[in-house]
Amino acid sequence: MLLTQAFFFADFQQSKRDSPECKAIEDLIDADADLDFQRTSPKVKEAFVELREKIKDSRFDVGTLRDLALCIYGVRNSIFHGYWSYLDKTRGHVGGAQFLLYKLIRRGLEKQCNFAFWEP
User: Among residues 51, 45, 21, 31, which one has the least CA distance to residue 12?
Assistant: First the structure.
């Protein structure tokens, strides 16, 4: 998991904030403004706040990766349970969360399970 965490936040550490990963993470952090906080679990609310602070302070650890996963989960819940309609910026939040989840799972499989993906 540490290899996945180091890879996932490398662009932030190298100040490459225009990378697709950084843009998706920053958009995901902004998604909390659109959450229905009366229906959102306290852990998810806290994850958005913590992820924002860790990114701002460049503190990247396993907890940062956990917060990222919880934020993705919060976006999923907002769509699945009907708090959001799939319009406008919601599409961006969902697309960014899907992109990050794909990257996270792929990197985990590559490093933790020695799984090689075939690239055409």
Answer: 21
The residue whose two tokens read 């602070």 is 53
Give the Cα separation of 68 and 98 in Å (integer).
12
Of 34, 8, 15, 14, nearest to 100 by C-alpha is 8
Where are the extended beta strands (E) located within 45-117? Answer: none
Residue 40 tokens, joined: 């959102």
Single out the residue of 70, 90, 65, 73 nearest to residue 8, CA to CA.
65
pLDDT digits (tens, 9 = 90+) for 42-91: 888 899 899 999 888 887 888 888 899 898 888 888 777 766 666 666 77
Fill in the DSSP letter of residue 1. Answer: -
Q: Token digits for 23?
A: 């843009």
Instruction: For the chain, give every domain's residue range.
Output: 2-112
